[in-house]
Design goal:
This protein is of the alpha/beta class. About 40% of the residues lie in helices and about 20% in strands. It contains 8 helices and 11 strands. The chain has a 5-stranded parallel β-sheet with strand order 2-1-3-4-5, with helices on both faces. Strands 6-7-8-9 form a 4-stranded antiparallel β-sheet, with helices on one face. Strands 10-11 form a two-stranded antiparallel ribbon. Helix 2 runs parallel beside helix 3. It is elongated, with a radius of gyration of 18 Å. The relative contact order is 0.11.
Length: about 220
């Protein structure tokens, strides 16, 4: 999954990004509300974490602008203010959750899982493609009950493909979703990771799940 972190305190921003990346999330980051709104309007995300007290445009204003365009992206608001009025205002503005600083990073991760699960078509944390299973909570991947060890990027690509089961995903779409603004066009990094995944997911199995759609991209599906 790809998440936007908008937090103007640089140390806090860095810690959140480090925590999310360690869990395998793709992360874009910014430090003010105007940049946050630009990213949200021009990039596909699975969730956003917005600090309320940001320069140029505060988190609630960003959220209201997003919701005004009927954007249903899951959003967590961060704030140092713990009054009931502040929480009510944030939730009434369209936030899915509200977290008061300082907070435990395990709680932040749990809340991200909760809001993305609520908006996901997958009711369970387990996604299946034939005899392949992927647990979005533990990041455990198995085929025929055998555990498959994946790197964080390999897991992120596989999860993205499973969430878009049966859909063709282009090189650019995968790269932008997983690497975000760090991706430089023309790089073959997606091809390299797809090759790694194919060896781990389909190697030794007669039924292939990861398919190349020549000229378009890749898809994961039980039967092509």
């Amino acid at each position: 999954m790809r998440i936007l972190v908008a937090e103007d305190e640089h140390d806090m921003n860095r810690l959140i990004v480090k925590t999310l990346e360690k869990e395998g999330y793709g992360v874009d980051t910014c430090f003010d509300g105007e940049d946050a709104l630009y990213c949200l309007e021009n990039t596909e995300y699975d969730a956003a974490i917005l600090d309320i007290m940001m320069p140029k445009k505060d988190g609630v204003a960003v959220l209201k602008a997003l919701r005004k365009k009927n954007h249903t992206l899951p959003v967590i608001l961060l704030t140092a203010r713990d009054s009931i009025a502040d929480r009510v205002n944030g939730l009434d503005s369209g936030a899915d959750d509200y977290l008061v600083k300082p907070f435990d990073f395990d709680e932040l991760l749990a809340r991200i899982r909760a809001i993305t699960r609520k908006h996901s078509p997958h009711a369970s944390s387990i996604m299946s493609v034939g005899d392949l299973t992927l647990d979005t909570r533990s990041h455990k991947v198995q085929r025929e009950g055998k555990v498959i060890e994946l790197s964080s990027k390999e897991y992120a690509i596989l999860e993205y493909m499973c969430m878009n089961l049966g859909m063709v995903l282009s090189r650019e779409k995968i790269a932008e979703h997983i690497w975000g603004y760090d991706y430089t066009g023309g790089s073959n990094i997606v091809d390299v990771y797809i090759s790694y995944l194919r060896k781990k997911i389909d190697g030794g199995y007669s039924k292939k799940l990861l398919h190349t759609i020549w000229g378009s991209g890749w898809m994961i599906k039980e039967n092509l």
